[in-house]
User: Which sequence fits this backbone?
């Protein structure tokens, strides 16, 4: 139903979010974090069903059920991830999508449709790739 009066709409900045963690998962502080197909946080890995979230702000070990623990994830920033040597991102990839390899590494291609998107390349240094 559409509004018929003013509404006090709650907000958050969305930069630091608390995400329920998948069962049996350890996420290290500083790790590349993704959401699995069920929406639970997990470390980055090669899979096509993952959604890039950002960087873990803390270490979380979840030996319990899905969502038994939460992890703080920082979003809306550029993070420097390692560059996958066998499928390296180069300066020519500036502004293009790169892909998740693991919880600290990105690659240039989707690995013949085996990798999930990590974000957009905004810089390439000798020691890593800036991804937003």
Assistant:
């Amino acid at each position: 139903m559409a509004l018929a009066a003013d509404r006090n709409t709650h907000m958050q900045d969305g930069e630091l979010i608390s995400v329920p963690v998948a069962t049996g998962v350890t996420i290290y502080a500083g790790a590349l974090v993704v959401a699995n197909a069920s929406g639970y946080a997990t470390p980055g890995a090669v899979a096509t069903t993952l959604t890039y979230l950002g960087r873990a702000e803390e270490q979380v070990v979840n030996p319990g059920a899905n969502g038994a623990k939460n992890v703080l994830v920082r979003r809306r920033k550029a993070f420097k991830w390692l560059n996958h040597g066998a499928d390296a991102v180069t300066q020519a990839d500036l502004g293009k999508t790169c892909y998740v390899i693991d919880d600290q590494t990105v690659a240039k291609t989707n690995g013949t449709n085996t990798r999930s998107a990590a974000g957009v390349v905004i810089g390439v240094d000798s020691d890593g790739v800036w991804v937003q």
Observations:
- The mean pLDDT is 98.
